[in-house]
Design brief:
heterodimer, A: alpha/beta, Pyruvate Kinase, Chain: A, domain 1, five-stranded mixed sheet, 5 helices, 6 strands, B: alpha+beta, ATP Synthase, domain 1, Single alpha-helices involved in coiled-coils or other helix-helix interfaces, 2 domains, 28% helix, ATP binding (chain B), ATP synthesis (chain B)
Chain lengths: 287, 134
């Protein structure tokens, strides 16, 4: 049986761990709220740009833009959003497993695809497996501004525009609620689902100077904002996942502390009983 | 006087929503003036200042990477960044301007001139807008 001192030591160390995890839980909770807010303030922009793009793209059928047309796929791009730090439960492993399996299923050689990755965890994962990573960002802010990711989004869209990749998939954790995040695959380029969910009649616009040139400007911006939207969504999920993971850790620490306290008290009682019986025994021997 | 509602939206959230009498903005092929009752229009904007004329006062907004959507009673400006004069960090813009100028002058092959140039334009635009209301 463990000595009183051992048990006491374990209780103290578990309590300290609990303090850390519960602090991290609270930090993540407040970050999650902020991230949720960011995601919400992005919605008006997204809706508006979607509306305009859809009205141009559906307004006349002869619009022609490389980003709207599927072409033969020689190389596929995967945009993977992971976190920089661990301690977020299954957040990263879920997403990496999905991407890894998909890539192995779809491609035979590493010439057929390339990966654009955000986050240290993802970067290490793909590097260790010798998978081609063409762009990476680590150390992204917890509350990213559009300016922070603009360059990356721009370069990613350019990969497609320069025909280095012929289609682009995004992988990120979609934030459903504080306790549920779902790995989501989204085909970003070419833009094929413009009319989705936009059944209401859109007004017809005058275009200045003309539709082609507006599409030239608008479609890359649209694609960039889709990427930004995914990043905001992913960030909110990350904080939520970390919050849940830390909450579980705190709960487990509580269980362990309860368990250990019980053991400690039992050991203490046993020690006292033993002492008493020794004294009684000693006194009896003297009589 | 009739007014139109102007809202400026960026990926980081709405910047402004207010009623104005006239909007003038610089589109790709020239200056545009929008009055209430304009026909629906879409036009990309250059890196420039948008002037919003209200009752007795004029607001300036520095926009980059944006476009303008006009409806008869509403104008929406969608921009990758949009700032009011008091939100602009002039010091930072000035530094960005110097940096961009240095990059443009360095004449090395590895410099992305297009990017440096648009960075310079953004910085100059910010400085101008920040100075416009003083």
């Amino acid at each position: 049986m463990a000595s009183l001192r051992d048990i006491k030591g374990r209780i103290t160390s578990t309590k300290k761990t609990k303090q850390i995890t519960s602090a991290m839980e609270m930090v993540s909770a407040s970050k999650m709220n902020k991230a949720e807010q960011n995601a919400r303030s992005f919605v008006p922009y997204m809706e508006k740009i979607q509306e305009v793009v859809a009205s141009i793209a559906t307004g006349n059928l002869d619009v022609d833009h490389p980003m709207l047309k599927s072409r033969e796929v020689k190389k596929t791009g995967y945009f993977v959003f992971t976190s920089d730090r661990g301690l977020a439960g299954a957040y990263n492993s879920n997403i990496l497993r999905t991407v890894y399996n998909t890539i192995n299923k779809r491609h035979k050689s590493s010439d057929e695809y390339t990966i654009i990755v955000i986050g240290k965890v993802g970067r290490e994962f793909f590097k260790n497996r010798n998978m081609p990573v063409s762009k990476e960002i680590v150390g992204l802010n917890d509350q990213p501004d559009f300016a922070d990711i603009k360059d990356l989004a721009n370069e990613t869209v350019n990969l497609y525009a320069n025909e280095e990749i012929d289609e682009l998939y995004m992988y990120y954790n979609h934030y459903e609620s504080a306790i549920s995040q779902v790995v989501t695959e989204k085909k970003l380029l070419p833009l094929t689902d413009l009319n989705e969910g936009n059944s209401k009649a859109t007004s017809s616009y005058e275009y200045e100077p003309n539709q082609e040139e507006i599409l030239q400007v608008l479609l890359p911006q649209y694609a960039e904002s889709l990427i930004y939207g995914a990043i905001l969504d992913g960030k909110a999920s990350e904080h939520a996942a970390r919050m849940t993971a830390m909450k579980n850790a705190t709960d487990n620490a509580n269980d362990i502390i309860d368990d250990l306290s019980l053991k400690y008290n039992r050991a203490r009682q046993a020690a006292i009983t033993q002492e008493i019986s020794e004294i009684v025994g000693g006194a009896a021997a003297l009589e | 006087m009739k007014t139109l509602t102007v809202s400026v939206v960026t990926p980081d959230g709405p910047v402004l929503e207010n009623a104005y009498e006239m909007v003038s903005a610089k589109a790709e092929n020239g200056e545009l003036g929008i009055l209430p009752g304009h026909i629906p229009l879409v036009a990309p904007l250059t890196i420039s200042a948008v002037r919003l004329k209200g009752e007795g006062n004029t607001d300036h907004i520095a926009v980059s990477g944006g476009f303008l959507e006009v409806r008869p009673d509403k104008v929406t400006i969608l921009a990758q960044s949009a700032e009011m004069p008091d939100e602009i960090d002039v010091e930072r813009a000035r530094k960005a301007k110097e940096r961009a100028e240095r990059r443009l002058q360095s004449q090395k092959d590895d410099v992305d001139f297009k990017r440096a140039e648009s960075a310079l334009r953004r910085a100059i635009n910010r400085i101008n807008v920040a100075g416009a209301n003083k």
